[in-house]
Amino acid sequence: MTDELQEHLNKGMYGTPKLKPDEQRKYLGTFRERVDLTVTFAQLNSEKYYPAIQKELEAHPKYRMTINGSVDQDQLSRLIQIANSANAAFTCSSDLTLPHAASDLAIVIAAPHQAIHTEVVDVALRYPLSSASPAPTNEKDSKHHFSLKDLFHKK
User: Fold this and answer.
1) Which residues contact 152 (CB under 8 A, 6 or more apart)?
2) Which of 26, 72, 119, 155 has the fewest CB atoms nearer than 10 Å to its CB?
3) Please, is 55 exposed, middle or buried when counting C-beta atoms within 10 Å of its C-beta (0-12, 13-18, 19+)?
4) Residue 68 near residue 104, CB atoms below 8 Å
5) HEC profile for 61-82?
6) Strands (E) located in the chain
7) 64-107 tens-digit pLDDT
8) CB 29, CB 93: distance < 8 Å
9) Does the CA dihedral 141-146-149-154 come out positive or negative?
10) What span, in angstroms and rounded, lies between the C-alpha atoms of 71 and 142?
11) How many whole angstroms separate alpha carbon 45 and alpha carbon 140?
12) Using CA atoms, how far apart are residues 34 and 32, in angstroms rounded to an integer?
């Protein structure tokens, strides 16, 4: 009975304990199993990922986009325009405990209440950028190619 009383007092003083708080902090308040797409602050600085965000929101209109409150004002207004054009719900989290380094998440697109178990959620892995110049196919075409074979064999 004292354990139940102590648990009741703890809930009253500290609130109900959260399930997986570190995971929820990383994914801007949701669980990993609900996440469809993530974009880091570094990826958000690149203009190349905005079409992928719009494509994902248009493909899943029931999903919600959560934006880290530390996102730059210009980026925030562009993300709101994308969400509005896709008729998607969005939330801007103002939680000051959320991380905001370049490798931390700036945007999370997730299902609101059900687990979807998407395997690849990183925007760079799901929507790889095509390189502007094709990679050299021949060794002699590459100007900066270096091989040990070149050092020890006569040409």
Assistant:
1) none
2) 155
3) middle
4) yes
5) CCCEEEEECCCCHHHHHHHHHH
6) 35-40, 64-68, 89-93, 105-110
7) 999 999 999 999 999 999 999 999 999 999 887 788 899 999 99
8) yes
9) positive
10) 40
11) 36
12) 5
- Provide the pairing of β-strand 64-68 with 89-93: parallel
Nearest C-alpha neighbor of 104 from the set 25, 19, 21, 18: 25
Residue type at position 5: L
pTM here is 0.74
At 132, the amino acid letter reads A
Report the amino acid identity of residue 138.
N
H/E stretch holding 133: none
